[in-house]
Amino acid sequence: MTQKERYESAKERYGLFGVDTERAIARLKEIPVSLHCWQGDDVTGFDHEGPLTGGIQTTGNYPGKAKTPKELMEDMDRALKLMPGKKKLNLHASYAIFEEGERVDRNKLLPKHFAKWVSFAKERQMGIDFNPTFFSHDKIKDGQTLSSPDEETRKFWIEHGKACIRISEYFARETGIPCVMNIWTGDGYKDIPADRMGPRMRYKDAIEQILSEPFDKNLVKPCVESKVFGIGVESYTAGSAEFTLSFAATHEGCLPLMDNGHYHPTEMVSDKIPALLCFYPEIALHITRPVRWDSDHVVLFDDETREMAKEIVRCNGLERVYMALDYFDAGINRVAAWTVGFRSWQKALLSALCMPHEKLRRLQDENRMTELMIMQEELKICPFGDIWEEYCRQCGVAFDGEWFLEVKKYEEEVLLKRK
Ligand code: RNT
Ligand code: ZN
User: What's the gap in Å between 3 CA and the centre of ligand 2?
Assistant: First the structure.
């Protein structure tokens, strides 16, 4: 059977459930997913020499890591060509690009330090999301930034946050697409603190000061990302789930951001999405794969990933949920890591769009739970691969089984030759 014939037959199978696969494919093409620059260089960035801090860690030493803006852009470009669907670029402040001899500290960053990224994004019709970088820097005092008891330290990081608001607005104006600006700090304590509220009060005040920087709420979407623990920050984090949710709930225009690596292992972000959508007009996500801890493994087409995508689609949330990938594996080919993760999330969204949600909901509401179980099980083995191939074909990207050859070639010709 040809690809076309296989698709036609799959389309018919889905049709029996009342699913219109053409519509699903067309819809997915419009939905932007933000691709994180930091998979390409193990979260190193260009503005510091020191180690990765803030309670996050990359493991592995696969050859070919990008070391310059040019290399990172080239690598990302390779990956982008292998991804179907609409993309947005996700940058961290530590990826500022300075001219020869020029260098400013993070509190003095300007839009011009990201001009090359803007050209990169514009040439590829991508919007840009942004993140102030509150880690891997010598002005982190005793592990704290925005919640530090030291006023000087706090002030420096507040200035950084404000600079990032201005840069975010510049991104939005340049690209014509709103910029999601996410605030995450690794502030916290390794061991049992004596004061849990003090750091949070300081963190609250600091974020309020950052958000007092004037900006257009239609252009910049500030978020606060929570986290339950980090490496070396096991006992307490200032930006806990309750803290960030309450902050976002009480600060107009500020979104909560959930990273699915940042909860206790049996807590499911898929279940939290519909809960938050009852209250927040918009929310943001970091999509990752935690393996026993916040390990940031490459996103796969696994159960929880699919469940998260289903909830977004079922809740009519595609326009209300900002989706960004957030993982970093230094142990495998980084271009492939980007590609697998992005394609996996696209698969999850497409398969969620290929479900008869109305029908399933009705079964639940009529308490026909046996039929609901059966239908959900049967849907699992519908010929989704054929729909996915058609989506890849329509988007003009390589099929599964084909694209890695290109990555392998790039690895041999370029990546392995890097010093
Ligand atoms: C860390 C957070 C945060 C970072 C990125 C690099 O645990 O998930 O979002 O991964 O900002
Ligand atoms: Zn994250």
Answer: 38
